[in-house]
């Protein structure tokens, strides 16, 4: 019979572990995932399973982010979604990524000028990130005609003729500017109030705007045409995939996502972008574009089916969010 001999240091460690009091959550200095003591666990499981089935296999990264990482682990969100420089990129023939790691900014080039979509956190970021990115891409800032702001949180308009919904104009002109770290930002001049169904046209390009409340009271989403190596595509940008912050706003978000799914299907949306890179792994997609072969498919092109499923996955994850708060989410 073989006798197992435990080294002295190992024996001491085992004794110390056995003698130590149990700690349910680890050392006090370790962060833990968010807890939801009032959650309806059966409803969480039901909606979680539905979201997973919709996401498999090609939308799992988006599902992981919205259903689990974002609501459960803010440390991971902060680590991934940090302010930082990333390479500028031409994503479609007319559409350019000119933002930073935490928040997106897009330049849509038309025959009659440039439409900007969002403007980062501050005037300094607009000056020191967006403008140099545009210059490296051969885009002349003097050709900028419009800035469309997806929603009124300061990380999207801090660098800002500005287009914003009525509800979000009202929000950013209140004293708290939408709250959080952007409360001290001075709001831009009210230029254009976008209403549901409005269109912004420059040259031959028309951007269709839709008010999709939930993430903010007047979140703007948009649909517009592009080409990729000359082939036509239709881009969809849901302006508030981050979800709501209360039971009421989450329910509003669910209604908006259901509507957005139908709008995208009717318009033939087959490509997606986002106003936060992490929400659709945009940084990784840009790396695929920069480092792949010219014959590789454009990773921002999802096809006809996936954009609708993406919206439905986001909807189910919002229902998970409600269930975590103790509501059924149905």
Describe the fold and architecture:
With 330 residues, the protein is α/β, with parallel strands linked by helices. The protein has one domain (41-324): Metallo-beta-lactamase, Chain A (4-Layer Sandwich), CATH 3.60.15.10. The protein contains ten helices and twelve strands. It has a seven-stranded mixed sheet. Helix 2 runs antiparallel to helix 10 (305-324). Mean pLDDT is 87; it is low at 153-160.
* Quaternary structure classification: single chain
Unreliably modeled segments = 153-160
Q: Which architecture does the CATH hierarchy give at level 2?
A: 4-Layer Sandwich
- Give me the Rg, rounded: 23 Å
Global mean pLDDT: 87
The secondary-structure class comes to alpha/beta
List the SSEs and their pairings:
Elements: H1 8-19, H2 41-55, H3 60-72, H4 74-80, E1 89-90, E2 95-97, E3 106-110, E4 113-117, H5 123-136, E5 144-148, H6 154-157, E6 162-165, H7 166-173, E7 192-194, E8 199-202, E9 205-211, E10 220-228, E11 231-237, H8 247-267, E12 271-272, H9 282-291, H10 305-324
Descriptive labels:
alpha/beta; 7-stranded mixed beta sheet; Metallo-beta-lactamase, Chain A; 12 strands; single chain; 5-stranded mixed beta sheet; 330 residues; globular
């Amino acid at each position: 019979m073989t006798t197992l001999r435990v080294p002295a240091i190992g024996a001491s460690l085992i004794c110390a572990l056995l003698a130590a009091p149990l700690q349910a959550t680890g050392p006090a200095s370790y962060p833990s995932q968010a807890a939801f003591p009032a959650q309806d666990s059966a409803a969480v499981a039901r909606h979680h399973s539905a979201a997973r089935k919709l996401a498999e296999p090609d939308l799992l990264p988006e599902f992981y982010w919205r259903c689990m990482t974002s609501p459960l682990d803010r440390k991971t969100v902060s680590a991934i979604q940090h302010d930082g420089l990333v390479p500028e990129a031409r994503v479609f023939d007319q559409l350019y990524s000119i933002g930073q790691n935490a928040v997106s900014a897009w330049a849509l080039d038309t025959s009659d000028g440039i439409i900007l979509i969002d403007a980062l956190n501050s005037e300094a970021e607009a000056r020191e990130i967006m403008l140099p990115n545009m210059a490296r891409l051969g885009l002349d800032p003097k050709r900028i005609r419009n800035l469309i702001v997806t929603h009124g949180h300061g990380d999207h308009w801090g660098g800002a003729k500005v287009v914003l919904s009525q509800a979000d104009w009202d929000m950013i002109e209140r004293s708290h500017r939408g709250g959080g770290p952007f409360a001290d930002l001075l709001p831009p001049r009210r230029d254009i109030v976008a209403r549901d169904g409005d269109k912004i046209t420059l040259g031959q390009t028309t951007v269709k705007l839709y008010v999709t409340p939930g993430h903010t009271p007047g979140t703007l989403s948009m649909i517009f045409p592009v080409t990729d190596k000359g082939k036509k595509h239709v881009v969809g940008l849901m302006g508030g995939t981050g979800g709501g912050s209360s039971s009421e706003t989450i329910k509003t978000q669910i209604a908006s996502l259901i509507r957005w799914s139908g709008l995208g299907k009717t318009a033939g949306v087959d490509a997606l972008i986002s106003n936060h890179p992490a929400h659709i792994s945009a940084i990784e997609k840009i790396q695929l574009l920069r480092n792949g072969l010219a014959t590789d498919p454009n990773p921002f092109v999802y096809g006809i089916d996936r954009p609708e499923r993406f919206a439905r996955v986001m909807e189910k994850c919002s229902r998970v969010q409600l269930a975590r708060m103790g509501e059924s989410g149905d």
